[in-house]
Amino acid sequence: MKVSDILKLKGSTLYTISPETTVNQAVRIMAEHDIGSLVVIQHADIVGILTFREVIGLLAHNHGTIEEVTVGKVMDKNPLICTPETDLDEVRKMMLERHARYLPVVENKAMMGVISFYDVAKAVVEAQGFENTMLKAYIRDWPEAGNS
């Protein structure tokens, strides 16, 4: 299974912000759209990602306030990125090694979407369910001994 399989099911809605956006504005966008990350774009390039992890870190550092801090000051400036052709096993490994919950998907410098740890887990569970169903059907149709 590949990242493109997840994107087909998930759709292509993208939410991005600039590094100059305040974290306060970014949090409102995330809450309004029920999303856990925003890709940070500057001059058509991905320059970072803002997730709830960076927001929580900022809140902890500022004793519970966001103030007027810009996204560029707190974003992850080196986000993991994958392509639509990246195999899901590789994505799982990447996410686990870096404790990343969100990965922008890029093809030929164009952002195709963002996949989350939840998206990956759901795809794996659904694939395993399909395999289990197929195996059970195969076993149910297994020829009896002596019927060759």
Describe the protein's architecture and organization:
This protein has 148 residues and is of the alpha+beta class. The chain has one domain (3-140): CBS-domain, CATH 3.10.580.10. The chain is 46% helix and 19% strand. The chain contains six helices and five strands; from the N terminus they run H-E-H-E-E-H-H-H-E-E-H. A three-stranded mixed beta sheet has the order 1-2-3. Strands 4-5 form a two-stranded antiparallel sheet. A hairpin with a 2-residue loop joins strand 4 (102-107) and strand 5. The longest helix is centred in the last third of the chain and has 24 residues, at 117-140. The chain starts with a helix and ends in an 8-residue tail after the last helix.
Note the topology.
Elements: H1 3-10, E1 16-17, H2 23-33, E2 37-42, E3 45-51, H3 52-61, H4 71-74, H5 88-98, E4 102-107, E5 110-116, H6 117-140
Please summarize what this structure is.
The chain has 148 residues and is an alpha+beta fold. The protein is built from 6 helices and 5 strands, in the order αβαββαααββα. The two termini are 36 Å apart.
Notable traits:
46% helix, 148 residues, two-stranded antiparallel sheet, alpha+beta, CBS-domain
Distance between the termini: 36 Å
How many structurally independent domains?
1
Secondary structure tally, helices: 6
The number of E-state strands comes to 5
Helix- and strand-based class? alpha+beta
CATH class category name: Alpha Beta
Mean of pLDDT: 88
Enter the CATH topology name.
CBS-domain
Low-confidence stretches: none
Considering DSSP H and I runs of 4 or more, what fraction of the residues is helical? Answer: 40-55%
One letter per element, helices H and strands E, the order comes to HEHEEHHHEEH
Strands of the largest sheet, in order across it?
1-2-3
**Would you identify the CATH H-level superfamily?**
CBS-domain
